[in-house]
Amino acid sequence: MPQKDPCQKQACEIQKCLQANNYMESKCQAVIEELRKCCARYPKGRSLICSGFEKEEEEKQTLKHTPQ
Fold first, then answer.
1. Residues 15 and 25 sit within 8 Å (Cβ to Cβ)
2. Smallest Cα–Cα separation from 18: which of 10, 5, 36?
3. Which of 44, 49, 48 is nearest to 34 (CA)?
4. Alpha-carbon dihedral of residues 32, 34, 39, 42, nearest 10 degrees?
5. Contact 54, 44 (CB under 8 A)
6. pLDDT, tens digit, 9 for 90 and up, residues 3-19
7. DSSP H/E element including 19
8. Nearest-5° Cα angle at 51, 22 to 63
9. How far is the C-alpha of 67 from the C-alpha of 34, rounded, in Å?
């Protein structure tokens, strides 16, 4: 049986918040930050839910190292 994603609870909280706030991301920054904190606690690839944040970080790193 596959392991439950360690950050599933936080992802569900984001969905609840977005639905309750007419999908205004700005009203859900606190719960989004909780998911980011959860993702930071686990090794890369451990959480499918965190893969979007991991990709975002990789893109930031790539842009940082690209000569202007």
1. no
2. 10
3. 49
4. -170
5. yes
6. 789 999 999 999 999 99
7. helix 8-20
8. 95
9. 33
